[in-house]
Amino acid sequence: MTHAVEKYQKAQHLQLTDKLVVEMRGHTALLTLNNPSANTWDADMLLGVKQLIEHLNEDKDIYALVITGAGDKFFSAGADLKLFASGDKAMARTMARRFGEAFETLSNYRGVTIAAINGYAMGGGLECALACDIRIAEEQAQMALPEATVGLLPCAGGTQKLSWMVGEGWAKRMILCGERIDARTAERIGLVEEVVGKGEALRAALALADKVAQQSPVSVRTLKPLIQGARTQAPDHWLPAEREAFVDLFDAQDTTEGVSAFLEKRKPQWKNC
To answer: What percent of the chain has pLDDT over 90?
Structure first.
């Protein structure tokens, strides 16, 4: 999907393809997966996600990204298994690379990402949600990584991110035993942060994204790598970096503005610099 970059225009409704729809709502970008009937992923969609986030990283007016699925049944059912029916290893390698690049770029987005899980999140659909910072699920949602059921495995971060979030035991239940869980179970084990009523996930996600806009965007993009850093190195490793980052923020205009606004009892006007 090479035309995705050309079609990205700030503050306008646009379509990267007819399967990816992007809307700008204030300081939030809303991405809707729109590939009926199950919002399955194909190679162009994955490339489009990567390109979109690369551009959002350069857009100083956008602080958060919300991802949801079109319709009221599926967030995303993952990859279209028809792509793998022939046993073509070259196709498998291409799709694995596209999945990895898309969701690693999503995970490393400088702003805050929120998955509004409005239905089934299966396989690569759940891996997309796992790559987000926060997950809000509707009460009827179902989640699973069922790849081993068809002789495959999660290759877009599922084995690593799920284990990190819910612990090895639950990850093994879901991946090795093919266990599907409902939204309440997902909340209980730490896979999602909030469960809402049917049809309410997008509203809740956009409301949370509005809260992001109240934070200093400079602080947010400094904080996010520190929070995620403990995934790869012990917390003690990051303590000196945390202190240095605190001091470095005093080079930012937003730090002066934030402190002044608090003392003057007014809302800060962020400059994002």
So the answer is: 85
